[in-house]
Amino acid sequence: MSTGMYEGAIQDLIDALGRLPGIGPKSAQRIAFHILQSDSEIAANLVEAVRTVKERVKFCTQCGNVSEETECRICRDPRRDGTKICVVEESKDVIAIERTREFRGKYHVLGGAISPIDGIGPDQLRIRELMQRLSDSTITEIILATDPNLEGEATATYLARLIKPMGINVSRLASGLPVGGDLEYADEVTLGRAFEGRTNL
Amino acid sequence: MRVLKLALTNFRSYKNLELEFPAGPTTFIGNNGSGKTNIAESLIYLAYLSSHRVSNNQPLISLGADQAIIRAEIESQGRTLQVDLEINANKANRARLNGNPVKSQREILGALQIIYFSPEDLDLVRGEPTHRRDFLDKLLITQSPRLAGVISDYERVVKQRNTLLKTRAPENALVPWTEQLITYGAQLSAERIKLVDDLNPYVAANYANLNEVKAASISYKSSTDNLSADVTHNVEILTARQIEVARQEQERGVSLIGPHRDDLHLQLGDFPAKGYASHGESWSMAISLRIGSYNLLKSEGAEPVLILDDIFAELDTARRQQLTSVTQMAEQTFITAAVESDLPAELLSTKFYVTPGEAKR
Where are the domains of chain A? Predict the structure, then answer.
């Protein structure tokens, strides 16, 4: 690692920014100097936003999504179909699916995926809470929307084996070709998956 | 296929090195520690996205630099491809093809196909099975870059599953990983079995060419009997075998079946090469594996670049001749040596003299 070249407060800020995901030492330095040179109002707004997010934002007691109330906006909405639950890894996956406007059911946020080398097993995820929700007999369908990688697949397999014996319909999001793309640019793994998951016309 | 230009920035001992190569043999001559192998290593890294000398990237990056950069212009079947690779120590590498960033560095696999020889090749015969598995896997990646994904997924599944086994996790927690172990393991076993079948006649022929008396052959030794080149068949067999070893795995805390426990068996006459082969026979076997790989790729229409790193000092006249005759078939060969007189005259048409940080014609 490069050694700190600045003194005191500015280096403290660079170090703090550098610990954020996706920000390397050079970006941290650029952001720090941007803050230093901008209006004190902008800096104050940032400080305030960081403080309130930690104070005010909680996790929905139902689905585990981020929320300012005990229950999130989606769980409170009576128009949402309570018989379908879409299981995702993170809150940001909820936002991604919401943008499609395809799904009108409710969500369950696990808080990650099973990964033994990172010390994350079923007990570290919100799986017990999901099972509690499923004991409510109105739920008839579960859509597993974990990431299409090794850990996401393992999590989906684990959940499917747990939920299927309860007589609930379980499905997994399809993986295949990106829409609007060219077939020739798809990598072989994606193309292979798309072949496996082909549909009848 | 040949490398037209190679540029290294902050790679090992080179702050800035730019070289151009003609077709045919190019030789790097320099004292021990002058940096000859670093040049060979940069090409090996470009071909496999890993070094044959170290397992992490830090030693590849010059002291005080943030990243190392390898840039190469490669000509293949009349087309020129520019490949740029930025090697990072603590985050993912970044790559570009013809100046365009690619999503994953794996997309540059296949741009440069190589077969390399190095003093460490003796480990192929005398060393642990891991050297021979790595030999097979690298050859698979050269044949079909897609398999790099299968291999790294498989390795990660084994790691995840072993971690779980060590915590004495219940059966239902293991199942998702066992399923993926079988899926990827069945594919990798099938690919390796097919490769060894295809490679065997070439290895046998090369070994015989070295005036050795005994007959050489290679076969795939799997931790599970009856596997074949058929993936679906392997899934069935591995699934059945998995049930047999389940209890033993729980007791020992490791995954006991799958391609990570397999080996490439080398046979010389009536005995396995490991433990029985003389020093000379071991070298003949190692060289036959490498030249055989070259012959196999060539028979499939590939034109790999040959890299002979510090190998001539290890060999006697007959083996040197055999190796020199292979370079005459290759479009391009890179050779490193400490002593010029170790090399046959045919290999000295293009010479670079290497001193720390520099290479000059």
Answer: 8-56, 80-172
For the four alpha carbons of A169, A173, A179 and A181, in that order, the dihedral sign comes to negative
Rounded to an integer, the average pLDDT of B15-37 is 92
CATH architecture entry for B1-113+303-361: 3-Layer(aba) Sandwich (3.40)
B177 contact A CB<8A: yes
The answer, for B153 touching chain A at a CB cutoff of 8 Å, is yes
Residue in B216, B164, B203 with CA at minimum distance from that of residue B295: B203
Question: Is B41's pLDDT higher than 90?
Answer: yes
Write out chain B residues lying below 8 Å of A116, CB-based.
160-161, 163-164, 167, 169, 177
pLDDT digits (tens, 9 = 90+) for B240-293: 999 999 999 988 999 999 999 999 999 999 999 988 999 989 999 999 999 999
Most confident of A177-186, B53-62, B130-139, B319-328: B130-139
CA angle B305, B307, B310 (to 5 degrees): 170
The ipTM value here is: 0.78
Into which CATH architecture does domain B122-301 fall? Up-down Bundle (1.20)
pLDDT band for position A2 (50/70/90)?
Answer: very low
Nearest CA in chain B to A149: B153
Contact list, A157 vs chain B (CB under 8 Å)? 175-176, 179
CATH of domain A8-56: 1.10.8.420
Candidates A100, A122, A101; CA nearest to A111 is A122
C-beta atoms of B163 and A117 within 8 A = yes
- Model pLDDT, residue A141: 93
Strand order in the sheet with A169-172: A105-109, A81-88, A141-144, A169-172
Comparing CA positions, the residue from B163, B181, B164 lying closest to residue B172 is: B164
Longest Cα–Cα distance of chain B, Å, equals: 65
Chain A residues close to B164, C-beta within 8 Å: 116, 121
Averaged pLDDT score across all residues of chain A:
88
pLDDT tens, residue by residue, A130-140: 999 998 778 99
Q: Give alpha helix (H) positions in B223-278.
A: 231-252
- φ, ψ of residue B337 to 5 degrees: the values are -155, 150
